Amino acid sequence: MQQVKGSLSCITPVFVWVLLLLLLAVSGLNENITQRAEKALSVFTVVKFPNTACASSTTGRNGTCYTSSECSAKGGTSSGSCASSFGVCCIFEKTCGGGSSSENSTYFTSSALSKGSSCGLTICKSDSTVCQLRLDFETFVLNNPVTSTVVTIATPVAANRIGSCDTDSFSVTVPGGKSPPAICGTNTGQHMYIPASDQCNTLNGNIGSASTASTSAFTIKVTQVPCSSKTKAPNGCLQYFTSDTGTIETFNYNSAAGVLLVNQGYSTCIRAGRTYCAICYYSSIFKMSVPNAIA
Questions:
Q1: CA 5, CA 106: separation in Å to the nearest integer?
Q2: How far is residue 153's CA from residue 174's CA, in Å, rounded to a whole number?
Q3: What's the confidence (pLDDT) of residue 149?
Q4: What are phi and psi of 42, to 5 degrees?
Q5: Is 173 in contact with 201 (CB distance < 8 Å)?
Q6: For the chain, which terminal residue's Cβ has fewer other Cβ atoms within 10 angstroms, N or C?
Q7: 112, 93 contact by CB (below 8 A)
């Protein structure tokens, strides 16, 4: 048998070049496929945004930014867009017998109010970081407290009841804490800061059978205030004013036409402004509970 010997020195360079060309072609193909896959996946990118407060397209209502499906699932009403139109401004509105709500910027209204019954709503924390509830009385007109145009010895009972919320009243429960005083009369524009309870808080309007309050008697905006928020009121403050100037009024003041309510022991606080070292108070009018007793 004849043995044939050959040398690979002539074939090796050609083989290597072919192999390199094949590798480059495969690499380019894989890169092209990867780019196309990335472009296809980008169509299905999930957009996430914070559930912050938003201005709705409904006059007088603010909401929370959610996706359309989240808003529907939570029982809200979409009104306008937010988050660059990726979300909807979701409004939460509850009325008498509405159960409970843990949503920020919930509006509690008297649209289902009936005389001789109570109108309540339970508010629970949206999460564990919430410390307070701010109640803004955007509209609040219930029956006035007991009044008397004439105080005589012959009518001591009527005199003793002046300022009492005998027909209508509004109260808030604070499980594990001190509840604010009950109020009635006209309190549109007033506000309260309430400690947010882990057992939830209940807002309750007791409407008497002789009440003249209507289904538009009150609209109360409930804002959940985080413990770290700069808008959080100091502990023990039922009212908290943060502007450099303003007016402090008792509940049912009603432009000096109201009667001072009884059992109104609470604190009103004012945030100190930068560069200020004192506060100046003055009174345009000062009245006590007894009619025509002006100091």
A1: 93
A2: 39
A3: 56
A4: -65, -25
A5: yes
A6: N
A7: no
Helix, strand, or coil (residue 205): strand
Strand-strand pairing, 87-94 and 191-195: unpaired
| pLDDT per residue as tens digits for the range 237-248 | 999 999 999 999
* Contact status, residue 105 vs residue 157, Cβ threshold 8 Å: no
Percent of the chain clearing pLDDT 90 (strictly above): 65
Among 63, 48, 141, 58, smallest CA distance to 105 is for 63
Three-class secondary structure of residue 33 per DSSP: helix
Token pair listed for 294? 């002006």
Give per-residue burial for 99-137: e unless 16+ CB within 10 Å, then b: eebbbbbbbbbbbebeeeeebbbbbbbbeeebbbbbbeb
245 burial class (0-12, 13-18, 19+ CB within 10 angstroms)? exposed
Report the SS3 class of residue 22.
helix
- pTM comes to 0.79
| Residue type at position 14 | V
**Cα Rg of the chain (Å, integer):** 33
- Map tokens 């001591």 to a residue: 156
Query: What's the CA gap between 260 and 163, in Å, rounded?
Result: 6
Degrees (nearest 5) of the Cα angle 71, 140, 125?
A: 40
pLDDT at 39: 54
More confident: 278 or 30: 278
Nearest to 237, CA basis, from 171, 191, 169: 191
Q: What is the pLDDT of residues 125-179, one digit of tens each?
A: 999 999 999 999 999 999 999 987 555 555 555 557 889 999 999 999 999 999 9
Whether the Cβ atoms of residue 287 and residue 260 lie closer than 8 Å to each other: yes
